Amino acid sequence: MSDHQHRPTRQCPTCSGDLHLTGLACADCGTEIRGRFTRCHFCTLTDDQLELLHVFLAARGNAKELERHLNVSYPTARARLDDLLTTIGVTPTTPSRPSRREVLDAVSRGELTTEDALSELSTDRH
Questions:
Q1: Which stretch of DSSP H or E encloses residue 27?
Q2: Phi and psi (nearest 5°) for 80?
Q3: What count of Cα atoms within 13 Å lies in the side-chain half-sphere of residue 50?
Q4: 39-90 pLDDT, tens digit each
């Protein structure tokens, strides 16, 4: 038996329905337990999503660090984080639009690039 572990899939390969965890086994003695178990939200994350989560937590939620590590813009980093949240079953909330002052303060703190700030400020503010 190989030591390689596979991550469980969330969807049935036949009908695309949700799959449920129904078995656990001891690698040492072979004992098996059958039943219906709660799914681990993090077990189905891709390697990229796990790395994103690791970096996000290590940076204590600092978007600038996330951007730097991923080498992407703030909107791209935020989109990837939203994708990760959706994968683990969390519906990302739509934050209220920041005020001009908040956008400028984020630039001065280094949390938002000038390009992203210009994009944010130039969108319809109604």
A1: none
A2: -65, -40
A3: 8
A4: 777 877 888 899 999 998 988 888 778 888 888 887 788 888 888 888 888 8
Helices (H), 33-113: 47-58, 63-70, 74-87, 100-108
Single-letter code of the amino acid located at 69? H
Residue 85 to residue 92: CA distance in whole angstroms: 6
| Spatial distance between the Cα atoms of 126 and 109, rounded to a whole number of angstroms | 26
Label the pairing between strands 21-25 and 32-37. antiparallel
Count each helix (H run) and each strand (E run) in the chain, helices first: 5, 2
First to last CA, the chain: 61
Give the pair of three-digit tokens for residue 118. 């210009």
Q: Which two tokens stand for residue 82?
A: 């939203």
CA separation for the pair 55, 48 (Å, rounded):
11
